[in-house]
Amino acid sequence: MSVRSTLFAAALTLASLGAAHANGLRPIEGKSIDLGGVSGVAYYTVEPDGFHVVTTLAEGKAGTPVRVVSVLAPDQSVVLSTSQQAGALEIIRKGDSLFVRKANAVSN
Predict the structure, then answer these.
(1) Where would one find the signal peptide in this protein (predicted)?
(2) Partners of 32 in the beta sheet?
(3) What is the DSSP letter of 15?
(4) Sheet containing 77-81: which strands, arranged edge to edge?
């Protein structure tokens, strides 16, 4: 096995280990979102009034994309969920850090 293959395998292993926990996100870094049949990407920018979290979601490959912008102050969060049993995703701001984690589905 080459050094490149070993490093690639190690990176995949570390990435899969971190996927079970809340993942930190850096500004402008995209994070894939999977809520069952609905998927997309989220990223954020740092602005004077807070972290602007931009989430774009669509159902399948042919679904119409929906863009949601949330402004998070410290210790605020936003939950994204669907009616499917895929659960929900929570985007949390803790101080100057942003985390994405699986959350329990929100029921109405």
Answers:
(1) 1-22
(2) 41
(3) H
(4) 23-25, 97-103, 88-94, 77-81
Q: What is the pLDDT of residues 17-72, one digit of tens each?
A: 333 335 678 888 888 988 888 889 999 999 999 999 999 999 888 889 999 999 99
Helix (H, G, I), strand (E, B) or coil at 36: coil
Sketch the domain layout of the chain as residue ranges. Answer: 22-103
CB 98 within 8 A of CB 72: yes
Token pair 């402008």 is at which residue? 28
Helix (H) or strand (E) holding 11: helix 3-18
Residues 86, 39: contact at Cβ < 8 Å?
no
State pTM to two decimals: 0.70
